[in-house]
Amino acid sequence: PETLKKKIKQLAQLVKKSNHMVAYTGAGISTSAGIADYRSGINTVLDTGAGKWAKISAMQQGITRTKPNKRRVNIMKAYPTPAHMSLVQLMNYGYLKYLVSQNTDGLHRRSGIFIDKLGELHGNGTLEICEKCNKEYMRDYKCRYSLRRPKNHTDHYTGRRCTVKGCNGKLNDTIVNFGEQVRFDPFAISRANSDQADLYICIGSSLVVAPANRFPIEHGKKWKQEITETNDP
Known about the structure:
The protein is of the alpha/beta class. The protein has helices spanning 2-17, 52-60, 82-92, 107-111, 184-196, 214-231, and strands at 21-25, 96-101, 118-120, 127-130, 136-138, 157-161, 170-173, 199-203. It has a 4-stranded parallel β-sheet with strand order 3-2-1-8, with helices on both faces. It has a 4-stranded antiparallel β-sheet with strand order 5-4-7-6, with no helix packed on it. The longest helix has 18 residues, at 214-231. The radius of gyration is 20 Å and the shape is globular. The two termini are 38 Å apart. 31% of the residues are buried.
């Protein structure tokens, strides 16, 4: 407990001194909301059970019994966690300048975070966008599979059309599957803010999924180099 208290005080001081703090979140921030992550091991202490990829790996090795999710909830009924709300407070107080997230569960939007300061790099399950005019539509249901079944993982047409007068463009879900490119705008804005960051806080991510993991990793390398150069005789 004492070590934790000391680290909390150190982090608080870093936050207060920062000019452009950026936070980066992964699936781990949502496990306390009942949403399982991807890489927690088969014997994890988390009530949400083994992560998706850990289960797949276990099955490939012939292991059929893994810890189940005791807190499984429908993503649409999940509530933002205290961690989500803490980020909102940090943004409201002016400390957090931008939030980069790999998550598609939509909890950051539901938390009340400023939308123009949120980069959802892998999309949002309840957000669809017109491929013609880029009008965005937030739904209270998952966009994918809600009206039509996609032909494959690269087929994002939801079956709905844009209601902007004179447009009628196809609406696509915003989920970025493995092997697909991240949408340009969220990526570019996230990169610009990451380049400005003097404090980068990573929460609930193993930082192994590219290209999203570049931002905190490159930031860490940059500051490590600057510290090394400063300490050189």
